[in-house]
Amino acid sequence: MNTNLSKHILATITYYDVMDYPMTSFEVWKHLTIISGEEEEKYSLVDVVSELESEKLKRFINEEKGFYFLKDRGGIAEERIKRNKISERKFKRLIKMVSFLRFLPYIRMIGVTGSMAMKNAREKSDFDLFIILKQERMFTGRIIITLLLQFIGRRRYKNKIKDRICLNHFATDSFLVSGRDLFSASEYSFLVPLYGFSEFLEFQKENSWIGKFKPNFSPKMENTKQINDNYFSKTIKNFLEKVLNFDFIEYILKNWQTKKIKNNPKTNQVGSMIIYEDSELAFWPNYENQGPKIFSNFKERLDKISQF
Q1: Which is more confidently placed, 40 or 242?
Q2: What gap in Å lies between CA 22 and CA 217, rounded to an integer?
Q3: Element (H, E) at 115
Q4: Which of 114, 69, 68 is CA-nearest to residue 87?
Q5: Which member of 7, 20, 105, 194 lies 3.0 to 4.6 Å from 240 by CB, making a disulfide possible if both were Cys?
Q6: Sign of the CA dihedral 42, 47, 52, 55?
Q7: Residue pair 79/29 in contact by the 8 Å Cβ criterion
C-alpha cells in the first residue's frame, strides 16, 4: 500500500465531495489532488485503481454505480448521473451560442468552467465562460461580447440565470491568470474548450503550475464539443478586427469600464474578488463562498475522518 497515494486519493474524493461530485476511478486518477501544492510524482491509473480497493480506504469511502464517495453519502451517485444528463442537454444550447460568438472580433478562445465543465449542472444553472481575448483589446472585446449577449437575451444578470452566459472571467493571449491555488487548479483542470483549441493548449502550457496540485493532469488532445472557424466566420472576424483596430477605442472603453467597475458596490464588498487589469478581468462578487468556503468545508470533512 502506498500511504502517500492513499492520502491523496482520500483528499481528492473529500474535496469533490463538498461539491456533491462522486468520481470514477479514472477521474480520481486524472484529478488526483495534492493539497500542499508541492511537486509530486505521477501515479498510474493502475496504482490508483488498486489503492481504491485497499481495505484502508474502504473504511472511508463507498462505491456505487462506478462512482467513489465518502461514506454516509447515499444517493450521491444517482444524483450525479441525473446532473450529467442535464449537463449534456445544456451543452447543446451552449454550443449554439458559442457558434455565434466565434464571429466576434478579438476572441481567441472560449471555454466553459464550473458545474457545466464538470457535467454537474442543475436545471437552473448558468454557463460560466472563460474567454481569451487578443492582447491590448481586452476592453473592446469584452464590451462587444456583453452588448451582443444582452441584445439577444443570453447574458446573465440579476435573477435571469438559467441557461444564460455568465461573463465572469477574461484573460488575454498572454495566458496570465491571478489565481494559482487549489480552487483555481481544479477550475482550469476541468475547463472544457469550446472554441480555440490551440489557444487552450497554449494556456495549459503557460500555466504548468496546475501540475503542482494535479500531478496526473494533462489536457485532452481532442474535444468532441470543439467549434472551429469556417471561411465565413473568419472573414467576418477579420473584417471587424480591422475596422475596430484603433488604440483610442481601447483607451476610451478601458477608462469607461474601469470607472464603472471601481464605482460598483460589489467591487469593495466583503468576500468579493474583482480583478480589472489589462491582462485579466474577473468578477467574483461572492468569491468567499466559492474557493475559500469549499476549502474550509473540505478541511472540516477531512479532519473528521479517522487519522490516516
Answers
A1: 242
A2: 18
A3: helix 114-117
A4: 114
A5: 105
A6: negative
A7: no
Cell of 248: 483610442
Higher pLDDT, 306 or 259: 259
Q: Are 168 and 280 in contact (CB under 8 A)?
A: no
Give the C-alpha separation, 301 to 14, whole Å.
Answer: 7
First-to-last C-alpha distance (Å) of the chain: 13
Q: Are 76 and 20 in contact (CB under 8 A)?
A: yes
Kindly state the cell numbers that stand for 162. Answer: 438559467
Confidence band (pLDDT; 50, 70, 90) for 219? confident
Q: Letter for the amino acid at 257?
A: Q
CB neighbourhood size of 132 (10 A): 26
Count the helices and strands in the chain (H runs, E runs).
13, 8
Q: For residue 218, what pLDDT band results from cuts at 50, 70 and 90? A: confident
The CA distances from residue 216 to 176, 292, 294, in Å, are: 22, 24, 22
Spatial CA neighbour of 170 closest among 233, 263, 104:
104
For CA atoms 78, 79, 84, 89, give the dihedral sign.
positive
Domains by residue range for the chain, with CATH: 3-79+292-304 (1.10.10), 86-210+218-288 (no CATH)
Cα(93)–Cα(198) distance, rounded to whole angstroms? Answer: 23
Q: CA 101 to CA 110: how far, in whole Å? A: 9
Residue corresponding to grid cell 463538498:
18
